[in-house]
Structure formats: C-alpha cells, structure tokens
Specification:
Blueprint lengths: L13 E8 L2 H11 L3 H4 L1 H5 L10 H15 L6 E11 L9 E15 L2 E11 L5 E12 L2
Length: about 140
Amino acid sequence: MDEIHYEDLAAGQTTEFGEYEVTRDEIVRFARQYDPQPFHVDEEAAAGSMFGDLVASGWHTCAMTMRMLVDNHLSDSAVLGAFGVDKLRWPTPVRPGDTLSIRTEVLDREPYDEGRGLVRTAVVTTNQDDEVVLSMESKVLYARR
C-alpha cells in the first residue's frame, strides 16, 4: 500500500491496532529516568499508595502509545509533524502485565496549505480488559497528494 496521505483520511474513519505488553522492569526504568515518584519506582511504597501496586507514569503511557502509533500507522504515512495533543487523560493506571492497544477515529480534517492538511484524531489506548488508560486528541499534519 502507498503511504497514507491527507486525502486518504476521512472524518469518522476508525482503526484498531497494536499490542504492547508492559513489564515491571520497563515501568521502573522509565520512571527512574523521567518520573521518579515512589508509586512508579518502589513496589513497597506503591503498595501503600492509592494505587495499591506499582503503576506506570502517565508519560510512560504516552510513550508506549506513541510507539504503537508509529509502528502501526505513522511509519506508513506521509506525516510531517504535529501541533500537539488536546484533552490528554489517564483515567486508569497501567500496571505490570497489562497489554495495551489503540483505537483511533478521525474527527475532522482541513487543508492547511497547498501541500499539507491538518487531521484531528481521537486516540484511545486500552488495556486487555478494554479499560481506557489514555485518551487524547492529536493534531497532525499530513502531506497532500
């Protein structure tokens, strides 16, 4: 299949993809470097927290989501970059042993200039129990044909 361009995306279009297995070691390694709060790096402290167990940083959840987006969509797309995300939420914590996947829905799109189009997409990351662990709206520029 050719690269996905702006014209290939339509409002209402949905996709589901990805399968990312989360490990305890990855949670701790990421948190030690970027978000070293006790409930991310210390199992004993996490047991006494409101989570009751070790949980991934929300920023780690974003990074895992981004990896699945790149592996399953963006690497096959004529993406030129992004303006950012809106409405970022982490309603359910990610725990060791969770398996994450993604659902996307194109909300709308509009020409940006002669060579680019702006696509707004709802991204929802869920765990193996279909619980939402991340939701956001992304604003991404795609090349036009």
